């Protein structure tokens, strides 16, 4: 009987550990900027809401992300990303501050994410 209890406790601990690794809205924002910095446009698009992607269109979105990659490079790369988000249910709203390694001034942008099929996606602020 005690062996059975140990197996149950082990299973619960494993599930709790996996739940702790779940993607947060903040980590989604960080992943987005890290992907854009590296020029990984396809990876960056994966964390965008399909509605946002459809609204902008694939070519326009790809061009905008490539332009942002170039701008980040000219600014010396990313120093830090800080997302301050208020999460209520399946919506997270707040700001993201982007700091650069070079001389470019930090930027703070409004940020909104929605949870779609269990994953956080960046969407339009409207």
TrEMBL record:
PROSITE patterns: PROKAR_LIPOPROTEIN. It comes from the Bacteria. Gene3D superfamilies: 3.10.450.50. This is DUF4878 domain-containing protein. It comes from Massilia cellulosiltytica. The lineage of its organism: Bacteria, Pseudomonadati, Pseudomonadota, Betaproteobacteria, Burkholderiales.
């Amino acid at each position: 009987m005690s062996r059975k209890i140990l197996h149950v406790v082990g299973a619960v601990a494993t599930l709790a550990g996996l739940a702790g690794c779940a993607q947060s809205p903040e980590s989604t924002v960080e992943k987005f900027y890290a992907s854009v910095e590296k020029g990984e446009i396809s990876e960056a698009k994966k964390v965008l809401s399909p509605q946002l992607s459809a609204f902008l269109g694939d070519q326009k979105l790809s061009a905008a992300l490539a332009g942002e990659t170039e701008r980040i490079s000219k600014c010396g790369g990313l120093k830090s990303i800080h997302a301050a988000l208020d999460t209520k249910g399946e919506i997270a709203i707040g700001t993201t501050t982007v700091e650069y390694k070079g001389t470019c001034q930090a930027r703070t942008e409004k940020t909104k994410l929605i949870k779609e099929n269990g994953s956080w996606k960046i969407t339009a602020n409207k």
